[in-house]
């Protein structure tokens, strides 16, 4: 592994990562919700994880992704390694997902649309 890769892995805190949330938020292509809402949700997610000390070394990774192929009731998110999918990921609902799922490991049933993955 190159020194650059090693540095990036350390900087991202990959050894400490417990969960990774992927949020559908590509305003130019947004089909599951209003593009402004998707952008607002993404900015809120980044800010809140930072405020709570959860980003990177705090154990939570976040990624803005293209369409997650649900294309309704967005923004859509999926949390790994649990494999839980969520709908209506507004800033307010993301606060619930962060506090309950990302921190405590409890699924937010009211927003869940699929998952968790079955153990193999
Ligand atoms: S555009 Fe968000 S899931 Fe398809």
* Proportion in helices: 25-40%
Shape: globular
- The fold-level CATH name is Glutaredoxin
> What's the count of strands?
5
CATH architectural designation = 3-Layer(aba) Sandwich
Rg calc: 14 Å
Provide the CATH superfamily.
Answer: Glutaredoxin
Per DSSP, the total helix count is 3
Q: Distance N terminus to C terminus?
A: 30 Å
Low-confidence stretches: none
Q: For the largest beta sheet, what order do the strands appear in spatially?
A: 2-1-3-4-5
Element-level helix/strand string:
HEHEEEHE
Could you tell me which ligands this complex binds, including any ions or cofactors?
Answer: FE2/S2 (inorganic) cluster
Q: What is the mean pLDDT?
A: 94
Strand content: 15-25%
Tell me the number of structural domains: 1
| Largest sheet entry | 5 strands, mixed
Write up this protein.
The protein is α+β, with helices and mostly antiparallel strands and 120 residues long. The chain contains three helices and five strands. The chain has one domain: Glutaredoxin (3-Layer(aba) Sandwich). Helices cover 33% and strands 18% of the residues. A five-stranded mixed sheet has the order 2-1-3-4-5, with helices on one face. Helix 2 crosses helix 3. It starts with a helix and ends in a 6-residue tail after the last strand. 25% of the residues are buried. Bound molecules: FE2/S2 (inorganic) cluster (FES). FE2/S2 (inorganic) cluster binds next to loops.
Q: Summarize this, please?
A:
The chain is an alpha+beta fold and 120 residues long. It has 3 helices and 5 strands; from the N terminus they run αβαβββαβ.
């Amino acid at each position: 592994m190159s020194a650059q890769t090693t540095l990036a892995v350390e900087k991202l805190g990959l050894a400490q990562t417990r969960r990774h949330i992927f949020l559908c938020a590509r305003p130019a292509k947004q089909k599951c919700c209003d593009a402004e809402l998707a952008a607002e949700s993404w900015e809120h997610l980044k800010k809140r994880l930072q405020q709570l000390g959860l980003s990177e070394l705090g154990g939570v990774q976040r990624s803005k992704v293209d369409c997650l192929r649900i294309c309704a009731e967005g923004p859509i998110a999926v949390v790994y390694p649990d494999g839980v999918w969520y709908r209506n990921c507004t800033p307010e609902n993301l606060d619930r997902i962060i506090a309950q799922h990302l921190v405590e490991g409890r699924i937010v049933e009211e927003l869940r649309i699929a998952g968790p993955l079955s153990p193999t």
